[in-house]
Amino acid sequence: MRQVSVISAVSAVTLSRRNRAKRRAVSPEPMTIAEWWKNRSGESIRVTLSTYAGRNLIDLRTWYMTDGKLVPGKGFAADVSRLLRLTAALAKAEAKARQFSLIDEGL
Q: Does 5 have pLDDT greater than 70?
């Protein structure tokens, strides 16, 4: 029976993950998924999918007006592999907000 050292097994798993990451599909350019106005000052909130440094990202960011055009401001970006966890957290937040009547039932 052939024995494989722990180090070589870990190396094989790491190599497998690297190969999987290399085969991952990438977005040729950012895709805007949703956008809405935050306030009357011309700020908007934009949700995009993009690729940066070979990583696929979900980006939630405030955009603001300067010199007549929208430019990115503060926000949050995470690897898309975290998207399911993020959507679950947002669903919990929505349920709590509805429970305490913080948002209308019709929305």
A: no
Q: What is the CATH number of the domain that holds 48?
A: 2.30.31
More confident residue, 43 or 16: 43
The residue ranges of DSSP E strands in 1-107, in sequence order, are 31-37, 44-52, 55-66, 69-79
Domain residues for the domain of 15 are 6-80
> In Å, how far are 24, 44, 79 from 103, measured between CA atoms?
38, 20, 29
Q: pTM, whole model, 2 decimals?
A: 0.71
Distance between CA 22 and CA 97 in Å, rounded? 40
